[in-house]
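== Folding task for one protein ==

=== Format: two labelled lines per protein ===

==== Paired sequence and C-alpha cells ====
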Amino acid sequence: MSVTPDDESFMAAAIRLSRRHLGRTATNPSVGCLIVRDGVVVGRAVTAVGGRPHAEPQALAEAGAAARGATAYVTLEPCSHHGKTPPCAEALIAYGVARVVISVTDPDPRVSGRGIAMLREAGIEVDAGVLEAEGRRSLAGYLTRQTKNRPYVTLKLAVSADGMIGREGEGQVAITGPEARAEVQALRAETDAILVGIGTAISDDPLLTVRTPGLEAQSPIRIVLDPSLALPLTSKLVQTARDVPVIVVAGEEVSSLAADAEGLPPSVLPDISPTRGEIGKEHAPSSQDDRSSPARKHVGQGTNPQPISPLVGEMPGRAEGGTPSTDIPETESRRTALEAAGVEIVYCNPYHPEILLPALATRGISSLLVEGGAKTARLFLEAGLVDRIQLYQAPVVIGEGGIESPLGATDIPSGFAHTGTQMFGEDRLDEYERGL
C-alpha cells in the first residue's frame, strides 16, 4: 500500500502527541502512537513519564478489540528486544493490527530494522519514513544521544536591535516581551537540562526553572560551568537546589585541591545519576528496556581532544568570572557548603565541552539548552557542538555598556539551515538547525 495523505495526517497527529512528554521520559524517547480503524482513532498514547510503559501497549490497550485489523501510526520503530517490558512489536502482533506506519527507524542497534522485520514476518504490512524529517525533529534528543553519544544542544539568544544581549553590571535585562518569554518557558519544559556560565549565574542570579503555571514540575536540571566553585550560597540556584537539581561543573584543579584536603582521589562525573524524570528513583544503567545505547564512556576516556582556547578576557582555568583559588581550606569549605545545600559538584574541564557532553549523555540527558552568557555561547559554537540556534530579535535598544551578542542573523555558522520564523508580539524568532 502506498503512503496516502491520510497517513501523513495521522502521523502528524502522532508526532504532535509525542511532544507532550519531551524531557520527561528519562532515557527513553517520547514516542507517540495512534491506532486507527476505518479512519477513526480508537487508541492513542505517548510514552509515559519516566519512560514506561511505552506508547504502543498503552494505545493498544485503549483500542482493545478494535485494534484487530487496524493501522498503528508510531513515531519511532517499535522495539524488538526483551527488557523490563515485552517488545512493542510483539504487542502489535498479538493485538492483530494489519498495518504499521513508522516515521523514524530506531538507530539503537538492538532495535534498528529488527522491529520492522518482526512485524513483516508476522504478515503485518509496514511503511516507514512517513514525515521522517518532522519525526526526526521531535526525536532529536534521543537520536543525537544514540548516534553522537551526547545531548542535542540548543543555543538560545535574545538580541536587542543594536546587537546586545545585556548590559554590563546590571544583571538580567529584559530584551524580549512576555510572549517570547512564555515561549522560552515552554522550551525549558521539554528540555532535560539547561546550562549557563558562572558569570551569568552571578550577575543575573537566575532561577532557570519553568514558571508557567502547571508546568513547574517540568523544570530542567540546572548546570553551571563554575571552575572555581564561585557560585554564591545565597544564589537562587543554590537556595532551590533541593527542589530542582543543580550540577556545578568545577575545574579539575579544584578536584585535586579537594582530594589533597581529604587524601582521596579526585572525583569525576559519575556514569549514571537520576534525570528529572527519575528523581528519587533508582536507575539501572544496564536496563535493557531503555532505548539507550548500553555503551558507557567515562570522563577523559577515548581520544585525546584538543582543548578549546580560553575565552577572550579570561585566564586559563577560569570561565565567566570564576576566580581560581589555591587555598585548600577555602576551596574545601565552599565545596562542603554547596554540597550541604544540595548542589552536586562534578569535575570536568569547562573548556572541554566535547568531554562534558558525552558524560551528560551517560546520565540520560538527551537535550541541553545553553542559555547564557556570551562567552559560554561562544565556547559551544567554537567547539561545533550546537545543533539548533534559537535567535530572538527584539526592537529594544540597549545602548552604552551593552554586552555584544556572540551571534547575529547575518553571521550564522556554516552548516545551519534556516528552518522557520515566528513572531511573538514584537519579537522575531528565527530558528536554525544542523541536519541530524
